[in-house]
Amino acid sequence: MDEAAKKILKLNHDKFLITCDAIKSGIDEGSIRSNVDPVEMTIFLNLVVKGLTELHPDFKKVLEKRGITQHQFFVDAADFIHHMLMKPDKLDTK
Description:
The chain has 94 residues and is an all-alpha fold. The chain has helices spanning 3-29, 38-53, 57-65, 70-85.
């Protein structure tokens, strides 16, 4: 394996660990529900991000027909994930 490939693998691993540690910190400080598995959620978030960045053109068309921009869809997806993770008493109820 060449050096560039090794560096990419290391960066991906580091990103995984940082995300997992951030989730653990949120659990420890009480802002993220205690029943969230940090490793499982890190994998889930990586899959969601991959899916959002590789949004199928057919899905983009459906969103456009509904008046939803890709940016708004990203904002809505982030809000959904936020509500999945956070303890109910820590959520903004605007």
